[in-house]
Design a protein that fits this description.
alpha+beta, endopeptidase fold (from Nostoc punctiforme), 26% strand
């Protein structure tokens, strides 16, 4: 389910941020479209990254499968604040404030240092 969603949003611009957002500018794509699509497919995910990080089953980094949700800590608050969808072969799709929706490698130093956890959410 998440893989089909991810294929449709890579290179898409990210949504304007709502009044409830933390940063001025843009909100990561995961705050609306995946949740909307997941609800349409019969899986309701919470809106916030922190709430999403408590859904489904916690899995180890070595057990990642395509479609798993990847959670990162990117800000100084030391809380989960970023989510992506694992695509396989160490790649995941996520929203970048500067580049829009992109595919990155979990092996990049930036993501190695900020990796927090992964969850498998199934209907």
């Amino acid at each position: 389910m998440f893989i089909k969603l991810a294929e449709g949003v890579v290179s898409a611009p990210i949504l304007p941020i709502s009044a409830q957002g933390r940063k001025a500018g843009f909100a990561p794509f995961h705050t609306r479209p995946p949740t909307t699509r997941a609800v349409a497919d019969g899986l309701a995910l919470p809106r916030t990254t922190q709430d999403q990080s408590r859904c489904g089953n916690l899995i180890s980094r070595t057990d990642l499968r395509p479609g798993d949700l990847i959670f990162l800590v990117t800000l100084k608050e030391k809380q989960v604040d970023h989510v992506g969808i694992y695509l396989g072969d160490t790649k995941f799709v996520h929203a970048s404030y500067s580049k829009g929706v992109v595919v990155s490698s979990l092996l990049q130093d930036y993501y190695v240092q900020r990796y927090h956890s992964a969850r498998r959410v199934v209907p």
